[in-house]
Structures are given as C-alpha cells and as structure tokens.
Backbone:
C-alpha cells in the first residue's frame, strides 16, 4: 500500500434486540407484532420496543405491566418454565450457544467473541496475507471496497441468523469494537450501519449520547449532565486531565474516555475464557413477593421493612417462613444448577464452591453484600432428577406448622440427590448470612453463585429445544403440554392479581385485539346539550374607498362588552364554562392524577440563584404550601471582595423577607416573625384573591427603599407601592385613594429610583388602550407632608401622544442613566436622563438615538474616562445615531440576529442567534476607556443540545467580570451559570430540581420541514425514548407561535413530562413570523407575507406525519395568543391534518380588531399585521386568513378555546365568536367545541400555583382523551409511590408538597411569553429595556 497505510480491517457487532421477547414470539406465534414483556417471579426482566412505548420498564411490577399492555393489546409472558413449572433459562442459553456457533461457522469470521447472551463481536478474516480482504486495490478505493465487502458480510450474517434461527438482529460495521457496538445500537432493531471513515465515525459519535458510551453511566453520566454534555463528541473539548477532575474519573477511565469520545479503541476482538462465576440474582421489592406457583402457590416472601423485616423470621427460624425460604432456594438453586450443568457440557469443568449473598437496608452497610460460602456438591451425586410434583395448592391449604414441615419433607424427597444437596446447602448459607443482620433489616438483593471451577469429565450436551426455532406454521413437539402448563400458570397469576370476572376478562380480550385509541373508553361526556349562541346579524362595512368590497356580517358581535358587566354576555360565558365542566367531568380522576404528578415533581422548597447587588444577596424562595414566592435578601459577608464565579451566599447571615406574595395575595396570613415590613391595608384580604401579579421589586441605590406594583384583576394595570425598608413606612401607597392620585393606580409596571434615593420615576397607562404613554416623577419627601384637600400627585416628565408608541423606562446597570425607549414592533427611539439629575418642571430627556424603522435598539452603558458611553446594536443591521461616543455592534448578516447585550466595566457580552442557534460571546473592553473602533476577538459560549433556550440572566454588580446565563432545552431543566468573561470558566450555580426526572430517558431532535418558497422550517422534537414507537401511532402535540419576531426557543417544562411519560411526542414548529432564523424570518411571516406562517405549520404537520412521528388522527395543535391565530388559521385551511387543537387566549377576529383603533394594541401593531381600515391590500390579505372570517362548512378537529374576561391584549369575545361560528357551520357532529373563560383573570390566566396547574391538567386531559385515551397512566408509577411500598404515601406527599420551582411557573405558559421571562427573574424584564413585556399578544 502506498504511503504506508494499512489495509482497512472491520469488526462486526451483532445484537439481538429484545432477545427474550423474540424467543417467546418464536415459541408462540400469536405474540408476533404485539407489545410483549417478560416476567420472572415478580419482576419484569425484558420488554420489546412496543411494550416500552406503552410504558413498561424493567423491574416494574408485573401487575402494572399487564395493565399497561392490556390497553394496547399486548401481553406479559412468564419466562420459560421447565417440567413442574420451575423457571429455566436453558432454551435462552441454548439459543445463545446456537447463535455463537452459527457465527463461528461463517467462512469469513476470523474471531467470534461472545459479549453477552444476545450479542457478539466478529473480526473479519484475512483470506490472503498479501491482500487481507481480497480487494487488490490501494488507497481510498481500497478502503471503499473493503467497506462495501464488510457491509456485504454483515448482510450475510443477518440473513443467516434470520433464516437458521428465526431471530432479528442489528449489526454495526466499523474499524473497531467501540464504533461497531455504537453502530449496531443506532441500527436497532433490525438495521445495519456502516462506519467506513472518519466522517461517518464523527457523525455516529455526534448522534450517540455520551451516557451511552459503554461503562460511563451512573455517576459519570450525572457529571456529563451537570456540564451540559449530551453527545459523545461534546467530550472532545476536554483533555484527559480535565476529564479526571470534572467527571471524577480514575486515570485509566479518563484515558479510555478521551480515546472513545474520538472513536478510538484498540481493544482486540478475542474469544473470552469461560466465566469464573456462574450466578443467579434476584432483587426483592419492598412488597410481598408472591412465589411462582410451583414454589408454594400463595406463599410469599415478605420484603417489607419496619418493625418486622424479612430477616426476623430468617433469624428466629419460624417454620412457615422456613418453607418459603426453601421454595425460593429451590427455584433459584435449580436454575443455578442448570447453568452449572450446561457449563459442564461446554467447558468440561465443575465448581468447587457454592455461595449465597445478601444485601440489606437498615443494617449500617447498605451498599455491601454479606456472603457465606460452602462446598459445591459433587457432580457424581446424581445426573438426573426425579419428576417434580407441584406443591402450590398443598402449601396454600396448609395451616399448621406440622403440615408445613411434612410438605417440606415431601419436597425434599422429590428432588434428586444433587438437587437436594444444592438446595439444602443454599438454605443453610442464606440463614447464616441473615444471622449477621439485625432482625428489622430489609433484604433487597439475593445472589447465589458457583465459583472456583476445576476440570471434570464432559457431560452429555443438553438436547436442543428445536421448538423455539420451528416455523410458525409447523406443529411443535410437546406443544400441547406446554400450552396446558402455560394456561395453568396464567390462571394462577390471575388469581394472585385478583383476576376480573369472566365477563370483564372477555371484554379485555376483545379490547386487546384492537390497536387504536378506541380500545379504551373515552372519558368525555358528549351527550351534554351544546350551548346555543343566538345570532344578531350586524354589518361591518369596509373602507368606502375600497372598490367592490361588500360588508362583512358578524352574527355574534353582541358578545362584545367593553365594560364586562352585561348580564346576557356573562350568562353566556358561564353557560359555556358549565358545558366544558360537564363534558370533561368523566376525566376528573385523570385530571387529578395529572395535577398530582405535576405537584409531585416539585421540590418542597426552591430558592432562586442568589445575585449580588450592593451590600446584599437577593433571591426568592418558594416553599411547601405556597402559591407564590417570598422575596428575600442576606448581607454579603465581605461586600468589598471582587465578585467571583465561585462565590456562595453565606447562609449564616440572617435572612430578611422583604415581601411574602402569598400574604399579599391573601392566600394565607403570614405568621412569620421575619416579615417586618407592613402591607398596605388594601392588600390584606383574609378571604384570598382570585388573581395576583406583582411587578418588581426595584431598590434604591442605598438599598433602603423598595418599590413594587400589584395587579389584582389580570388587567395588567398596576398599583404602585414604595416602602422604607428600615422604618417600614409606606412612602407611596397607591391603593390609598384619599392620599394618592389615580396615576399611582395606573402604573405600567416600570419604575426606577434616581440616585438621590428619594425620587421615583414610573410610567402610566392610558385608560382606553392600555398604552404606556406618560413618564412621571415623584419626590418621596413630599409623601411625608400631610395630605391636604388634594391627594399627592406626581409630576409629568414625558408624554408620548402618538398611539403607535409604547414607553418603557429602566436604570442602566451602572446606575448612572435612566433610559427611555419609545417603540412599536418595527420603529423605535431612545432617550436618556442622568440618574443624578435634580428633577423639576423643566427637566427633559435627551435624545440618544433618533427614530429608526425596521431595526431595533438595544442599549447598555459603561463609564469610560469619566464619561457615560453607550453601546447600541441593531438587529440584522447597523444601528444609527449616537456619535463617536457610541460603540455599535451589528451582525451585518441576514441570518444572524443580535438578541441581547450586557455591559460591565470590563466586558461587552453579546447574545446572538446564528441560523437558529443561540451563542453568547464576551468581548474585552479597552482598559483606558478609549472608544471602540471595532470589536476585538471575543470568547464564545454555547451549548451542545440540538436546540435549546439561552438568555442573559439577572446580572450582578457593574464591576463584576461575571456573565450570568440561563440555559435549558426540551430535555434539560433550567440551569443557571456564572461565566467568568476573563478566564472563560463557567460554574453551575443552580439547576432546576424536578423530582423523579431522569433526563437519560428523554431525547430531543432538531428536524427540518420543507415549506412554500423552498424554505426549510426548523422543528424541535422531544419524546421519551422508551415510551414511543415512532411508527405513526404515537400522539403528538405540535406548538406554533410565529409573530412579532419572537423566537419560540425550546425550553424545559416539568408539566410537559406528564404527556411525554404517556407516550406523547412534543414538537415546536419554528415558523416564519418568529425570529428563530433572524430578522428575515420575521419579515417573511408578517404583513402581506403572513400566510407563510400557516403554510409552515401545515408543512411541519405533514412532515411529522410522513416521518412516522404521528398520524393525523393522533396530532394536536396548540398555540397561545398570536399563536392562537396561527392555530385557528391553520385549522381552517387544513382541518384534515389534526385530531384536536387548543387555542389559548387566541387572537381570532383579526379584521375587526385591527379595524378598531380604540382597542389596546391595535395602532401599535399596524406594523405587524397592517391597517385594514386604510390599506386595501392589507384588508384583503387579512381577510384571507382571519380565523373568524374563514370558518367553513367542513369537518373540524376537537377544539378547546380559553379566554380571560379581563384580558387587555386579546378580548374574550374573539374566542367566543369563533366557537359559536364553528359550531354553526361545521359538518362534523362528533367533534367538540369547548370554550372556557376565566372570569377573574386576564391574558395570563390563573396566577396561583394550584390554579395554574389545574388548568394545565384540564388541557392535558382533553388532549389525552381526544388523541390517546389509553394513555391515562404514565409509563411508570411515580418514584415516590414505589419507594417504601407505601400505597398512601404518594397522596400524602402531594398534599404536603404544594410548591413549585421558579421556572416551572413560567413554562406552564408559553415559555417565550413576556410574563414568563419576567417570572424567571427577581427583577422584571423591563428593567433591562425589553418592551416585549408590554407589547404583543
């Protein structure tokens, strides 16, 4: 070979997927194509993919597995039983031996190494030493030919195994063992994957989760997760030394991992010597363990803890328990002896030592085994057993110790001499091991072993059990006897599990024959009379200047009530609510289960990641029983020390509770002595409130004053309060109408303190359109003066009369400037005011950046050479204005969007979206304060999930070198990192705790769907790997938004797990109109291009159906607010693609709303939707998709619409009109149209934890019952319910644990909603200059 290159050699890895299940399917052809799990004693030891998709997991209780599989027509099959019903692995081991023998007979197999009972490695043989693979070529051509020949060998092996053994295998073909094993895993269940070159190897490693690398589960996998490592290739950025330190690995393990993550493996393929130990093992659950019928019938081994543990009867030697131990030792001991005999036939050896090991809890050594050993009986005692008699019924009927002793003696006499010697020896060893534990200890694991082998005469090989490999149509020898035995076994198991009546069993069997959702009852009451909405036609003419445009007719315009007080309207909404309650009434238990699951994932107490500010650490706490949070702080032990990513809050410092939101909401009266700051009188409500929301708090520079604002109706109109934290005095009590004017009760939620620590600046809303239009200032010293005839009134600082603009104010991070931003969706300007300014009647803001269209300012500041400099960046284009003191950061690329920036004294950090992926970059700033001509080289920080959410968090002191970021993905809970921008070191400060969540079970993907105009639409997908089939039968929830340039970044949701655990697939379509792919992606989905949004949703749905992620009858669509418009328009156009849809507070009456400038948001959003009152093109375009105007006489999916009576963004009458019109025109009588209106909330529904989770449970129950009614239980029981065997403990736990993590509250809503972002931080997002908290639907 030229260049010294060696001829390529290949390794094949052959893996039999679900080996035990395939064996049983060969024996019983009726199991073919079904979901099957294998039971041994009271343990599930194997399940095929279909069973896993139904929720079955290893070590699950068989009764639960039966219940899950019954719903999908599957079965639980007991592991093979020999004569007398004893468990026997003989056919499985024989099949494994035949598999190895077959592989060794392949002419091109040089070496065959058995890796386990169902997998092997094959090294391809070299036919000619001069030409190892018989190719005769050189270089790349030779490598390609060698790869093709290896692929051909794999196909031959697969065909041989299928034809001769009837087993389906997957094969990996690669240059080494590691890549071959990973390739076969990727090819499961029956494919072949070739890794022929470095590119293919890297692709395979990129698709392989790091935790799947052999031997790197457990603690290593947990370490991978902590450091954001998902794919194996992510490990390549670490050196061996770093791996040792970060992942706590030993040197050898780190060295191997450093090689494996690059696809390197020098381990040779070689035949292994026979095992040094033959063993059988059993894990005991903390419940009564009913034995197999052949070992005592109703007798059970107790493994319950507490006062009388398993070991008490073992130690005391009670005769009844002695019998049970003997039955257990008979079952396990004969299985061990069978393995020894098979080994003797193959290896001509016999063990010298017999041992029994126990591991128990409550004994002070929970992680170690206690082992007792003795001599293994001689091979010459006996070579065959006498027929065994079943003693199950006799043991069950025995009542007296004497009778039980007699039965034990009979059982002893019916065993052969060798068998009896093994069983008796194990009994003695188990009792000896048990004697070393206290009586109350609980056995959790039992292991029996044969070791210390010596050469012996070869024994006769066991006769092959050919029926396991016989053709399905061929009669099998002994089938009748085997069938009779199996029927007896199943009858006994049914009796133990309280089998249903014959009528119920017949019904279950009929249901098991049906694979679709109709196999389970639908918990919906469709017989409830549908509310009738009367019609009052009203003509809505278009602009008279529009040619040939007839007026629209609105039959349901009467539902609009601007004052929300008309009896007819309120009665109609209440009737709709009663209808929803009646239809969903049969699902109340399901809703309760879902609610309890969500609560069960929430820790008892959650504290946000503390952040330094001034002299204190600030944070919030959510505790057990709370609906809201407590705002707290602790002093910094050494505030003069420079901030470090390794800083930790000193818990020894006293905690100050500044605000208890539960008390403010009236959820509970606080008796905490630490709550020293009094509440305003109007906030005290012993009876509780239906709604509560808080903006802030903000703190003065000296940290003695605190401002916050509350909304008690959901109208997003806030009442301002300012407190003195030292004296507890209320300096502003906006709810006190006698002392403070109306402006204090019309706050928009933006407020800041000037640097004098006595002046507060805030914005207020217009009464009609809820637009922030004025900026006010108020001198707190004036509040100390007595109230005269007039209440205290603030001074007007700025007024914007133009309805196009919303105002927002915030304080710069340095505390030197107060910024004012005026803007709409596409037009903005910036002004500023020195925070040191003495405000008076003549004070004005100074222009910082002039009015600009189709770009967005993001402004931050830093002091350079004693001057205040600012950094402004435009989205996908250069920013304008600012002069020489401004440093502009602009992407200059159409596919790159600058999402956010933050500035400290030494660094500029920029968050960019590059082709949909979020990346943070930190740039050093000149130390001499000189202006930036261009950005220096920066340091990038990103994460390796296929798609994820990343945003800048609440930043600390201005002089800090730290950048706080918040990261999550569809399968990774929120993680808060502090990154040292100077060193690049990142430290995990907090990760959202989700009780019982195992991230290794969940997978996420980023897919691309082809849409109109040749665009590729990104689609983020998540599912639980062992709960889905991905054959088109899985239910799928598709979310879409697509408006305002808002990116629907895939973020984690604890509540979503209830769907994923039930086999749902969750997908987010990042459609045009959003900002996921840059500014052009938004512009191509707004105004006259708005229809592209709906094209993209339909394209994503079609792609998911075509790719077998779901089917049309299992697909649901969900959208919120403007996303509700996306859903409504898509359902009107393509109803055949969906089985159900949820429209949350949806924007549906687009033409009517955008034609009425008196409504909130209308004028400001002309730039997003168009002005149908003045532009004919906009009118016709809007009319083409407005959901209310495009309802048609066609089949509609099941619809659930929600509304908030006090919603200022999307009026309640829009979903009410749509529901009435769909009912009027749809021709599908079997489809539901449900409208649920929250009569005490606004756009963001319930504010309390329980109310929010109950609403989510209702929506999920609707989805389950309309898409997959069989999925009424998750894939496995809650971990809290399983631990300790306490059947009532889970309900008690749920009743106590009523807390929620900070982010869980946010993700119940749209993860990208403004209020969601606000709740993720201690401070509101407007404090960072994000107008999104005020704009948009």
Residues:
């Amino acid at each position: 070979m030229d260049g010294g290159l060696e001829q390529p050699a290949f390794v094949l890895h052959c893996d039999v997927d679900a080996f035990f299940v395939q064996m049983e399917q060969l024996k019983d052809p009726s199991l073919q194509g079904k979901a099957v799990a294998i039971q041994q004693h009271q343990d599930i030891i194997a399940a095929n993919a279909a069973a896993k998709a139904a929720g079955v997991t290893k070590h699950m209780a068989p009764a639960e597995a039966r219940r899950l599989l019954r719903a999908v027509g599957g079965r639980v099959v007991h592991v093979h039983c020999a004569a007398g019903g004893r468990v026997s692995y003989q056919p499985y081991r024989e099949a494994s031996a035949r598999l190895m023998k077959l592989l060794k007979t392949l002419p091109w197999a040089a070496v065959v190494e058995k890796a386990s009972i169902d997998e092997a490695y094959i090294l391809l043989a070299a036919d000619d030493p001069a030409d190892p693979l018989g190719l005769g070529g050189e270089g790349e051509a030779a490598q390609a030919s060698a790869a093709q020949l290896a692929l051909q060998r794999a196909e031959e092996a697969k065909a041989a195994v299928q034809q001769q053994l009837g087993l389906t295998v997957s094969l990996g073909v690669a240059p080494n063992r590691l890549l071959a094993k990973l390739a076969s895993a990727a090819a499961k269940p029956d494919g072949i994957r070739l890794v022929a070159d470095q590119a293919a190897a890297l692709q395979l490693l990129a698709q392989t989760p790091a935790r799947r690398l052999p031997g790197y589960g457990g603690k290593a996998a947990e370490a991978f997760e902590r450091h954001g490592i998902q794919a194996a290739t992510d490990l390549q950025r670490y050196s061996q030394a770093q791996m040792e330190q970060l992942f706590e690995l030993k040197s050898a393990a780190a060295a191997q991992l450093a090689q494996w993550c690059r696809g390197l493996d020098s381990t040779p393929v070689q035949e292994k010597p026979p095992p040094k130990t033959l063993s059988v093992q059993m894990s005991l659950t903390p419940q009564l363990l009913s034995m197999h019928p052949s070992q005592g019938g109703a007798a059970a081994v107790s493994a319950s803890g507490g006062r009388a543990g398993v070991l008490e009867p073992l130690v005391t030697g009670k005769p009844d328990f002695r019998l049970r131990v003997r039955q257990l030792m008979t079952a396990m001991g004969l299985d061990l002896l069978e393995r020894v005999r098979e080994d003797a036939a193959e290896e001509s050896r016999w063990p010298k030592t017999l041992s029994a090991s126990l591991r128990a809890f409550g004994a002070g050594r929970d992680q170690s085994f206690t082992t007792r050993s003795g001599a293994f009986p001689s091979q010459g005692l006996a070579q065959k057993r006498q027929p065994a008699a079943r003693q199950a019924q006799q043991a069950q009927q025995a009542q007296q110790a004497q009778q039980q002793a007699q039965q034990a003696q009979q059982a002893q006499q019916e065993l052969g001499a060798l068998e009896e010697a093994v069983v008796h020896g194990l009994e003695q060893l188990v009792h000896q091991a048990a004697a070393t534990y206290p009586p109350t200890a609980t056995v959790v694991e039992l292991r029996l072993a044969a070791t210390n082998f010596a050469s012996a005469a070869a024994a006769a090989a066991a006769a092959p059990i050919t029926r396991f490999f016989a053709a399905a149509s061929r009669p099998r020898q002994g089938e009748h006897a085997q069938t009779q035995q199996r029927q007896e076994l199943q009858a006994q198991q049914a009796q133990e599990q309280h089998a249903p009546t014959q009528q119920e069993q017949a019904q279950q069997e009929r249901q098991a024959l049906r694979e679709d959702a109709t196999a389970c009852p639908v918990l919906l009451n469709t017989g409830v009379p549908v509310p009738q909405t009367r019609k009052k036609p009203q003509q809505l003419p278009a602009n008279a200047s529009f040619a040939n445009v007839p007026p629209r007719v609105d039959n349901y315009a009467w539902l609009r009530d601007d004052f929300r007080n008309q009896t007819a309207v309120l009665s109609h909404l209440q009737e709709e609510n009663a209808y929803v309650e009646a239809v969903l009434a049969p699902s109340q238990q399901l809703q309760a289960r879902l609610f309890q699951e969500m609560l069960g994932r929430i820790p008892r107490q959650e504290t946000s990641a503390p952040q330094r500010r001034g002299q204190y650490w600030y944070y919030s706490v959510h505790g057990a029983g709370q609906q809201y949070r407590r705002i707290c702080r602790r002093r910094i032990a050494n505030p003069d020390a420079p901030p470090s990513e390794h800083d930790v809050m000193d818990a020894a410092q006293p905690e100050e509770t500044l605000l208890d939101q539960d008390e403010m909401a009236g959820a509970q009266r606080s008796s905490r002595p630490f709550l020293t700051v009094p509440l305003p009188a109007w906030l005290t409500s012993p009876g509780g409130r239906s709604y509560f929301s808080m903006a802030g708090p903000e703190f003065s520079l000296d940290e003695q004053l605190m401002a916050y604002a509350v909304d008690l109706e959901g109208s997003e109109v806030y009442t301002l309060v300012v407190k003195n934290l030292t004296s507890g005095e209320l300096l502003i009590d906006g709810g006190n109408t006698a002392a403070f004017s109306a402006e204090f009760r019309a706050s928009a939620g933006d407020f800041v303190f000037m640097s004098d620590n006595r002046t507060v600046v805030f914005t207020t809303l217009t009464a009609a359109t809820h637009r922030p239009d004025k900026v006010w200032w108020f001198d707190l010293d004036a509040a100390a003066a007595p109230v005269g005839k007039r209440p205290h009134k603030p001074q007007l600082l700025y007024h914007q009369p133009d309805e196009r603009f919303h105002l927002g104010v915030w304080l710069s991070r340095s505390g030197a400037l107060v910024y004012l931003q005026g803007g709409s969706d596409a037009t903005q300007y910036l002004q500023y005011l020195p925070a040191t300014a003495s405000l008076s009647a003549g004070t004005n803001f100074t222009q910082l950046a002039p009015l600009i269209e189709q770009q967005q300012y993001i402004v931050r500041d830093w002091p350079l050479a004693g001057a205040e400099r600012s950094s402004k960046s435009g989205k996908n284009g250069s920013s304008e204005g600012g002069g020489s003191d401004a440093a502009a950061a602009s992407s200059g690329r159409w596919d790159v969007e600058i999402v956010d920036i933050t500035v400290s004294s030494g660094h500029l950090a920029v968050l960019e979206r590059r082709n949909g992926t979020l990346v943070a970059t930190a740039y050093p700033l000149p130390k001499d304060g000189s202006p930036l001509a261009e950005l220096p080289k920066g340091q990038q920080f990103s994460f390796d999930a296929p798609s994820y959410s990343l945003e800048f968090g609440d930043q600390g002191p201005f002089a800090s070198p730290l950048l706080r970021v918040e990261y999550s993905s569809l399968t990774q809970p929120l993680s808060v990192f502090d990154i040292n921008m100077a060193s690049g070191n990142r430290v995990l400060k907090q990760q959202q705790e989700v009780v019982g969540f195992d991230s290794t079970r969940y997978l996420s993907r980023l897919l691309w769907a082809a849409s109109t105009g040749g665009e590729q639409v990104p689609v983020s997908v998540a599912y639980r790997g062992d709960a889905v089939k991905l054959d088109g039968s899985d239910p799928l929830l598709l979310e879409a938004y697509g408006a305002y340039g808002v990116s629907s970044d895939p973020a984690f949701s604890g509540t979503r797990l209830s769907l994923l655990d039930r086999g749902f697939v969750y997908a987010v379509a990042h459609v045009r109109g959003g900002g996921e792919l840059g500014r052009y992606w938004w512009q191509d989905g707004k105004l006259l291009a708005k229809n592209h949004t709906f094209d993209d949703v339909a394209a994503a749905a079609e792609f998911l159906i075509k790719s077998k992620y779901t089917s049309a009858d299992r697909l649901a669509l969900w959208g919120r607010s403007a996303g509700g418009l996306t859903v409504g328009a898509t359902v009107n156009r393509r109803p055949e693609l969906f089985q159900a849809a949820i429209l949350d507070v949806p924007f549906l009456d687009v033409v009517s709303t955008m034609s009425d400038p008196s409504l909130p948001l209308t004028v400001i959003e002309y730039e997003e939707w168009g002005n149908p009152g003045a532009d004919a093109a906009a009118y016709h375009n809007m009319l083409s998709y407005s959901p209310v105007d495009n309802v048609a006489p066609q089949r509609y999916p099941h619809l659930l619409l929600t509304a908030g009576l006090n919603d200022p963004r999307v009026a309640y009458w829009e979903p009410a009109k749509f529901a009435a019109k769909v009912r009027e025109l749809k021709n599908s009588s079997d489809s539901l149209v449900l409208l649920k209106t929250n009569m005490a909330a606004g756009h963001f529904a319930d504010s309390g934890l329980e109310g929010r989770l109950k609403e989510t449970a209702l929506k999920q129950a609707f989805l389950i019952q309309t898409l997959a009614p069989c999925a009424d239980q998750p894939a496995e029981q809650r971990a809290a319910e399983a631990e300790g065997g306490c059947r009532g403990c889970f309900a008690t736990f749920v009743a106590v644990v009523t807390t929620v993590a900070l982010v869980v509250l946010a993700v119940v809503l749209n993860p990208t909603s403004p209020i969601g972002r606000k709740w993720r931080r201690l401070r509101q997002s407007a404090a960072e200059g994000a107008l999104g908290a005020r704009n948009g639907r």
User: Anything to note?
Assistant: The mean pLDDT is 78. The first helix runs from residue 19 to 27. The CA atoms of residues 314 and 431 lie 6 Å apart. The two ends are 68 Å apart (CA to CA).
